[in-house]
Design brief:
The complex is a heterodimer of chains A (216) and B (231). By secondary structure, chain A is mainly alpha-helical. Chain A is built from nine helices and two strands. In chain B, strand 1 and strand 2 form a beta hairpin. The radius of gyration of chain B is 22 Å and the shape is elongated. The chains are: A mainly alpha (216), B alpha+beta (231). Chain B: This is Na(+)-translocating NADH-quinone reductase subunit C.
Chain lengths: 216, 231
């Protein structure tokens, strides 16, 4: 057992932290964009969606990693899909039972976690060839990398589009033009195109900080 | 055993499907009561919203039991019949001929007078739209209305679920001065209609607006005999 890797070795921690920066699924690999645009008009659905994806991705990674030596090669994609689909349906049912209003807001997008490219990508590229623990960390890391971008986008869209954070009003009512003030919410921020532009700005900021990411 | 052989693959796939199906069924059965309760609470919130009471999920059941003093179902000739108003499936009722439908009525006590709440169900552009409208005890003046939808276009047709649109219905009348049934007309600005029956349609949401108008007309028409009795 002496040659066994410690649980939080540098390599394992890298699995957790790299997706937050230099291999971020949204800003670097540009995966999972569709749901990032759709659920980020407000912060609350963005947070719930992030938690759901982190949970599904981490567990799917572990399950596939445990099964990796038994899965018949020819149907491995199908097995991956079944695992993801089953977990997503569970998450959907739990949301419907315990946070009904959020589940209504997320509507079809919870179901669409199944088609989120990040999940299949991680299962195929990582979990099939690695032990459960690193796979778990990889799932957490990539889910968190996805979630971090969702939360940042959701923060700016809700702040500028609705003048609130988590539904709490931050802009005083008296500032609004209708009440004789000078301020008006930017309706564009609520629409999906501004989410794409916000993601674009994040990519821009990230690449100007991290020169290695710039392609020739 | 050969992991790439047909037999192994086949057994693997079958076992996996049965196992996953079992897990999902167990989860669905166990979570069903919670989900049902959420749907019920939402319905109560909607009913209360039509009489301009805002209730959150925690308080909805309590406020509902305090305010909704009576609920019953009537038939197309306005007679009370057996049945539970709350559990009527409007979608199913809509597919029946008018004289066979059962029509739910909820009575709400507000400031000493009774408001009558009637459910609506119709079609928008992309899917079903539904709502509740409450009438004063003169069975003519609208006290409040609330609408919801499954998948109308955000920013356009979906605006029917905003209070700005719904507040327009307050104080409108559904019968003309001569006593004839007029319903509510959801009109564009260039359409002429008597102001007491008219609300502004949603720009860019014409089909949803017209669907809403049709829904109100169809569903309130079915209650005509009930209205005449109560007046």
């Amino acid at each position: 057992m002496s040659d066994r890797e410690p649980l939080f070795s540098k390599k394992n921690l890298g699995l957790l932290s790299n997706p937050l920066n230099s291999s971020n699924p949204i800003t670097v690999q540009v995966l999972g964009i569709c749901s990032a645009l759709a659920v980020t008009a407000q912060l609350k659905p963005a947070v719930v969606m992030s938690i759901s994806v982190i949970a599904v991705l981490a567990f799917a990674n572990v399950i596939i990693s445990l099964l990796r030596n038994t899965i018949p090669n020819r149907i491995r994609i199908i097995v991956q899909l079944v695992v993801i689909a089953a977990l997503v349906i569970l998450v959907d049912q739990v949301l419907k039972a315990f946070v009904y209003d959020v589940s209504k807001q997320l509507s079809v997008f919870v179901g669409l976690i199944i088609t989120n490219c990040i999940l299949m990508g991680r299962l195929e590229a990582f979990a099939l060839g690695n032990k459960p623990w690193p796979s778990f960390l990889d799932g957490l890391g990539n889910g968190a990398g996805y979630g971090a971008i969702l939360v940042i986008v959701g923060f700016f869209r809700e702040l500028l589009g609705s003048g609130s954070i988590f539904g709490f009003k931050l802009i005083p009512e008296s500032w609004y033009i209708v009440n004789g003030g000078f301020y008006s919410n930017n309706g564009m921020m609520i629409l999906p195109p501004m989410a794409l532009i916000t993601v674009g700005v994040i990519i821009w900021v990230q690449r100007s900080k991290n020169r290695k990411l710039i392609e020739d | 055993m050969d992991r790439n052989g047909n037999v192994y693959t086949f057994i693997y796939a079958s076992a996996m499907v049965i196992f996953v199906a079992a897990i999902l069924s167990i989860a669905a059965i166990n979570l069903k009561p919670f989900q049902q309760k959420n749907i019920e609470i939402e319905k109560k919130q909607n009913i209360l919203a039509s009489v301009n009471i805002v209730a959150d999920a925690q308080s909805a059941t309590q406020i509902y039991s305090e305010r909704i003093v009576n609920s019953y179902v009537v038939n197309a000739s306005g007679e009370k019949i057996d049945g539970d108003a709350f559990s009527v499936d409007l979608k199913k009722e809509r597919s029946k001929p008018v004289d066979q439908r059962i029509l739910p009525v909820f009575e709400c006590q507000i400031d000493g007078s009774v408001k009558y709440i009637l459910p609506l169900y119709g079609a928008g552009l992309w899917g079903p739209i539904w709502g509740y409208v409450s009438l004063e005890s003169d069975m003519n003046t609208i006290y409040g209305a609330t609408f919801d939808h499954q998948g109308e276009t955000p920013g356009l047709g979906a605006e029917i679920s905003t209070t700005v649109f719904q507040d327009q219905f307050k104080g409108k009348t559904i019968f003309g001065k001569d006593g004839s049934f007029q319903s509510v007309i959801v009109a564009k600005s260039n359409e002429t209609a008597p102001a007491e029956h008219k609300v502004d349609a949603i720009s860019g949401g014409t089909i949803t607006s017209k669907g809403l108008q049709q829904m109100i007309f169809d569903d309130l028409t079915a209650y005509k005999a009930f209205f005449n009795q109560k007046k």
